């Protein structure tokens, strides 16, 4: 990167690293929560802090990979949690960096699971084998199977056209006037975000509960 932009110094940083998994809150051990926070949230923060002096010096760009899942969750609250947190980090950073001429952009993709392979399909047996004895006493295998089928069906519906997200990243890095947020999603995904942002929580809960019951 430095050699490519040698005439203008260090121009851009893209924080793209991320991991995902599926599971209800009590299904996942604390170690998994810590790992997700470390990779998806703290990893981006560590990288940003390391390059901040150069980015300020050269009035560069910082791009973060978020997700529309920052607004709502459908069985992967652990991933949603980290994306919501990185959004707030970016909101603070964007305001603070204005005085240095550094621009901060957030990319918010919809479901691109088929493009990124960030989340492989999960079998009910895999999920069951990882549950604690306490959780096995609460849930049965039939419920686990239903949830696995639901989540895997969402993964299979993901877009395979990952270039749409790459185009947004390129625009964030090169546009004279980049957007603060680039939402790259299907219309129905944008509609969910719209409902989440503007309607009372009880409405969004009803919509998501209906979706989870299908």
Automatic annotation (TrEMBL):
Domain of life: Eukaryota
InterPro entries: NAD(P)-bd_dom_sf (IPR036291), SDR_fam (IPR002347)
Keywords attached to this entry: Membrane, Transmembrane, Transmembrane helix
Annotated transmembrane regions: 62-79, 191-212
Similarity field: Belongs to the short-chain dehydrogenases/reductases (SDR) family.
Protein's recorded name: BDH protein
Gene: Bdh1_0
């Amino acid at each position: 990167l430095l050699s490519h932009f040698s005439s203008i110094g260090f121009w851009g940083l893209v924080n793209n690293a991320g991991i995902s998994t599926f599971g209800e809150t009590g299904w996942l051990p604390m170690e998994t929560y810590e790992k997700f926070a470390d990779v998806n949230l703290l990893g981006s923060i560590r990288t940003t802090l390391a390059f901040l002096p150069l980015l300020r010096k050269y009035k560069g760009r910082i791009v973060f990979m978020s997700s529309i899942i920052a607004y709502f969750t459908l069985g992967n609250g652990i991933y949603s949690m980290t994306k919501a947190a990185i959004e707030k980090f970016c909101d603070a950073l964007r305001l603070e960096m204005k005085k240095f001429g550094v621009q901060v952009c957030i990319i918010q993709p919809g479901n691109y699971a088929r493009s990124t392979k960030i989340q492989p399909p999960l079998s009910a047996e895999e999920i069951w084998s990882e549950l604690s004895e306490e959780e096995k006493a609460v849930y049965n295998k039939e419920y686990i199977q239903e949830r696995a089928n639901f989540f895997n069906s969402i993964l299979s519906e993901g877009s395979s056209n990952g270039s749409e997200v790459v185009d947004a990243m390129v625009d964030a890095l090169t546009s004279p006037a980049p957007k603060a947020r680039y939402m790259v999603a299907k219309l129905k995904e944008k509609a969910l975000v719209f409902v989440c942002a503007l309607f009372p929580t009880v409405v969004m809960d009803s919509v998501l509960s209906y979706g989870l019951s299908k």
